[in-house]
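Subject: PRLD2 protein

B.,
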Amino acid sequence: MGVTVEVHRVYRYPFEQVVASYLRKYPSPMEKNVTAVETVEEKTDLSTGIIYRRRIATCQNVIPEILRKVTTYNSISQVSVLKVPDIYLEEESWLNMEKRNMAMRSHCLTWTQYASLSEESVFRESLENPNWTDFTQKGRISVTGAGLLNCVLETFAQSFLKQGVKKGIKIMEKLLQEQCG
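Prediction pasted inline below.
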C-alpha cells in the first residue's frame, strides 16, 4: 500500500539563495534530530555544467519512542529491530545553475526490509516572478514488515512526515530571513 505527502511552496527569494540555504540547512540547532550530513560524492558534468551530489544524513532514531505513544507493542523482537541508534538517509541532487533548477531524490537506508521512505523534490525559478523560487516535494512511505499494523503505522508515518515537512519549510524560511533580511 503506502501513503504519500505532497507540498508546494514559493520562497520569495532568488533561486541561488534558496539552494545555498538548503545545502547548509542541516545540521542545525533548529532541528536537533539531524546530527550530521556528509557529502560522499560530488562531481560536475563539464558538458552540461550540472553538479551532482550524493549526501548521507545521520538522524537520531525517534521511532521506538513514537511507537510507544501509538500502540502497546507486544512483539519485543520487532521493537528491538527498530532500536538502532541512528537512521541514515541518502540524498542525490542535480543542480543546473543555467536552467536554475535543482532536482533531488532521497530514500531511507535504514530498515529497508520493514519500510521504504522516498522523496522527490525540485527547486526551480518561479514562473510568477524570476526572483522567487518554487519548491515541490512528494514523499512516499510504505510499511511492509509489521503485519496487521502496516496500515496503522503508515497513517501515523504520514502525519509524522507532514510535521517534518512543515518544520523543514519553517527552517528554510528562517535561514533565508537571516541570510537575506
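The chain has four helices and seven strands.

T.
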